[in-house]
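Our example copied in:
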Amino acid sequence: MKLALHEGRCEGYGLCEEAAPRVYRLPDDDGDVELLHSSVPDELQAAAVAGARACPVAAIVLTT
């Protein structure tokens, strides 16, 4: 599974990081969420999906 971000869409709600702190991290400044993996390890895939689904602005894109 791959992760990507719709640049500029992230509004910093932090729900993705709350759901999957080993996959997503919000920076201290007003930037977009940081994706900690471009290719998600098998053991983190369920968390990555949960974090992406938690995003209220659909900023995170998952592909297989």
In short: Strands lie at 2-5, 24-25, 34-35, 60-63. The helical segments are 15-19, 45-54. The chain has a mean pLDDT of 92. Residues 2-63 form a domain with the Alpha-Beta Plaits fold (CATH 3.30.70.20).
